[in-house]
Amino acid sequence: MALLEIRALTVEFAGVPMVTAVNGINLSIEPRESVAIVGESGSGKSQVLNGCVGLLAANGRARGSVRFDGRELLAGGNAAAVRGRGIGFVFQDASGSLTPHRRIGVQLAEVAMAAHGLAQDAAAAEARRMIDSVHLPDAGRRLLQYPHELSGGMRQRVALALALVARPKLLFADEPTTALDVTVQAEILVLIAELCRDFDMALLLVTHDLGVVAALADRIAVMQAGKFVEEARAADFFAGPRHPYSTNLLAAVPTLAGLP
Amino acid sequence: MNLLELRGVTVTFRQSGTSARQIPAVDRVDFAVGEHEMLGLVGESGCGKTTLGRAILRLVPLAAGEVHWRGQRIDRLRPRVFRPLRRELQCVFQDPNASLDPRMTLVESVAEPLRALDPGTRAGERASRAQAQLDEVGIGANLSARYPHQLSGGQLQRAVIARALVVNPRFVVCDEPVSALDVSVQGQIIGLLERIRDDRGLASLFISHNLAVVARLCERVMVMFRGRIVEAAGRRALIESPLHPYTRELLDAVPAMDAGARMRLLGRASKPRPVVDDPGSAAGCPFAARCPHVLPLCHVERPPLQSAGGSRLVACHRAGEWPGGLRGLTSA
Amino acid sequence: MKSSLWRDAIARLRGDGLAMTSLWLLVALVIAAVVGPLLIGYREDEIDWSHMAAPPFEAAGHWLGTDRLGRDLLLRTLLGLRVSLAIAIAATLVSLVIGVAWGALAGYLRGRTDALMMRFVDVLYALPQVFFVIILTVVFGRGPLVLLVAIGAFGWLTMARIVRGQALALREREFVEAAVVGGAGTLRIVGRHVVPNLLGPVIVYATLTVPQVILVESFLSFLGIGIQEPLASLGNLIADGAAELETAPWMLAVPAGCLVLLVFSFNFFGDGLRDALDPRDR
Description:
By secondary structure, chain A is of the alpha/beta class. Chain A contains ten helices and ten strands. In chain C, helix 2 (17-39) crosses helix 11 (250-277). Chain C is elongated, with a radius of gyration of 22 Å. The longest helix of chain C is centred in the N-terminal third of the chain and has 37 residues, at 73-109. Chain C has eleven helices and no strands. Chains in contact: A-B, B-C.
């Protein structure tokens, strides 16, 4: 059975005129599978994630069906129950998941206590283990630091650690490397790939960057104006996309190959 | 004679919060741009590349060094004397949404430089010249009468380019002109810049964090790290045989867009690299803390930017040990 | 077609019931103040010997009653409204012009010039306004012009501070740098790029300044150092009314009600305008 099963998901925003950001998409993700939704700004890709877990703006509404681990997320309070537990999050801006005025160790331990019912010292040990698993050096010192004392790449590592404390089965990553420098981007991509493998985690990645897709995804869905125009295995996609929009998208990415 | 020449250019900022410590954002940079040359400048955010471009345009003051324009030293000129030179030195900014006045139509924005830099033109003539320039970059009169918030990023960036070109400059600083745009639009704007370069023979400093974008437009590329130029070379040489370890790191970071990319990445993932968080000492090589080839010497002595054969320049103590470049070598 | 930023703002304003009601009320009050006195069949200082201190609706022809001297209260209130409005709008315009120019220049130039200009503002802020007015009236006598100068001299201070803050933020925007690269001089940049882009908050603050000035004027007139008899202003009418509170409460109620209506509608309209111009900032 699929881990996440999205059926006819539509996300609309009330207003004049009403905006349909996501228009009846279907997508399923198997356990441990990495799927990427790629699209340009305004394609609605981020709203797929937000719609699945009930994080839409006040005037937004999601219709259709999203089943995670057999539970319907668009009904009742299921979405809220699954956020941060069954499904972890990383955003473009790590400060979205980190509280600015609290020490990193405290934030990690707090999630550990809530997620696993750990006592304080066990939670502190878990916090340290998570910092190690995202390869931050000087774990002892890091735990006592505040988010603003870290570089952007390190903050994103901490955000990943925070997302993983509850051992989610699925990670939602919305442009996880876009705000970072190119050399740091590569490091974070390596880390995400490694964490998905080590923690048996599936990944739903949203990005505009086909380089990120190539690095992380098993499967890819190309989104344009609220709809998927192409879905393919990543290997097939990079060997030769079918849809003209995908072809253009791939051709537009500047590469080092084929220089004069 | 070089069109533009920088000698020992240094720009410092006062570190916020703490005492009056001056942090160099650009640190003793020398380079020259020839007539019709599009010179590339690559580096990561915060490396000082944008500040360097702004220093040339006198948007930030120099702490030390000299800027020469066609043989004349321009960094000390009084504003009144410098202003006419702005006709020759123009700029394309990164974010088209921010660099156009939201209360002016595109044609008004494009006509504005003519007002100060081409005195004696009348309003009607300025508007028609602005529109002619806008037509050249593909913005028709139906679009140019609109306000920025009514248009897309790509359309706005075309207008920003038109504003830079309308006074017929000889040199344009292009500061990340495509990085705020969607990929498909990026390609169009790069194509436009290519066409302008070829048609007008414009000289330019093209600044970007994306090596692939720079390499597509510029024959010669400089790599900047923490305020210093660490390597400068022709694009082919730079990509095929990088001499500075940082250049190699940048090249490795350019994502490969093929089916094998994922497997290679997972191969790297199995041996995680430690994260380094060292600002580097002022005396030594700025890259020493991250460098896989570091020697004790690197921490105490700053390697000078020196010739590595032909027109290649590199600032690395050990560059002589890998004359064939670092691409083939595996990092330690 | 002028900027559709403005059209959007106007559309939002139209949807705001309270602001629109206030706007219509303001229009009605202004029309009443300008035209009303002409339609009433009395002269300003005409005394009706047969109806002194008449309550509203009792004496024929005096709908809102008369004062102690038998002058028509509706007429006096409308004239007072006219004077108060004129002073308020004039003082607001003065503060608008000086405050915007001062603040925009200080914010754009930054550094030592800015520090000097803003310390001057701080010094004026520190002066107590009432004493300043008293000194002015002692030196120049009492009258609407002195009052206008006295209020205008202080009214622009807050405007200058608001504008300076906005200008400081605007000068860092890339379009201002682009104008520098385009060779534009300081005055052109301030006039064409800085000021138009901070007009939104300025207009809002101006509509909120008008009622403040009305209150200050009323307060000063109430104290007897503002507008003097026989010229009416809302302030001195309220002062007169307060003196007769026990015998003729309508003499207080009519001008006070008018003041409340005026100040409320300006404030509600200003609030609505702020929301309309900057929908993010609620």
